[in-house]
Amino acid sequence: MIDCGSITGSLMRNPDRFQLQIVAAIALAAAFLTSCNSTTKTAQCNKLIVAINKGGEFIKDYDIEQSKTAAELAGALDSVSQELEDFEFQDENLQKFQTRFAKIFMAMSQAFRETRDAMALVEQSKADSKGLGELHQAKTQVEKISQGITEVALDADSLAKEINDYCYSPESGES
Q1: Strand, helix or coil at 8?
Q2: What is the pTM of this model?
Q3: How far is Cα 111 from Cα 104, in angstroms, rounded to an integer?
Q4: Alpha helices in 61-170 (DSSP H)
Q5: Residue 16 has what DSSP assignment?
Q6: Interval 48-59: pLDDT, tens
Q7: What is the pLDDT of residue 61?
Q8: Which of 8, 11, 37, 136 has its Cβ near the most Cβ atoms within 10 Å?
Q9: What is the residue extent of each domain of the chain?
Q10: Closest Cα to residue 24, out of 164, 174, 169, 149?
Q11: How many CB atoms lie within 10 A of CB 128?
Q12: For residues 83 and 133, which has the higher predicted lDDT (pLDDT)?
């Protein structure tokens, strides 16, 4: 199950770290994947959730202090997004969830690339009037990026709730 409140909760508790936590029982989901027929709704849900949680773990482990880490995170999120896009779900609702979460991870990837660029600008700034201007520019960029990430995280929380409701509701049954 995806922890719906964790994405925005992490950002609100510690917005400077841009943490995203989508916490789930990955081991349990992996066990289901190996024991279930991959065409069942449960197996497809678990496959989707495992990939989403992988992206969440990358973000949770992100170190805001290093521009190199921001670039690595962007690459990792690109990989997760591609992994999501490569899944071939039979369930129409899961296909929609898959596409939407792939877009969320791509948006976050882009935001972390922009963070990397702003951090690189700060790292290269000199202690003069031009450097102060660059620092102000970087601060403005980071504030804009932070707002964008918060909006994307809210979308991710909402989508995680939809996935949880769909995958774990007793009346939904197997398809």
Answers
A1: helix
A2: 0.70
A3: 11
A4: 67-86, 92-124, 129-168
A5: G
A6: 999 999 998 888
A7: 77
A8: 11
A9: 41-168
A10: 164
A11: 9
A12: 83
